[in-house]
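Below is how a single chain appears once it has passed through the pipeline. First comes the sequence as given, then the structure the pipeline wrote out for it. We keep one example in the README because the format questions we get most often are answered faster by looking than by reading.
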Amino acid sequence: MAKPTFDVDQLITSSDAAKRFGELRKRAKDLPQYITDNGAVDSVLIGYDLFEQMYDRLTRLEQEEERRILLERMDRIERSPESAKSWKAVRRNPEA
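Resulting structure:
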């Protein structure tokens, strides 16, 4: 998995973040702010606009993936109808 890149101006210790939260919130509207704990990035503060964009993108990707999976299953059943299981059979033995 690719890691996000950031510069040193976006890093702030957790103790400084607690002291300067108002300033940190303002900066997070422009760029994500990475809060460190014991020298390692622990949390990220982002503006709501970016959060909405990420949420929308994730929702769309999840829907596309669900659609892809369903279409794949429908195609598999069309090619091999004998592989289909009734809901009753699945309900009785979900592991089968």
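Residues 48-79 form the longest helix (32 residues).

See the next section for the split statistics.
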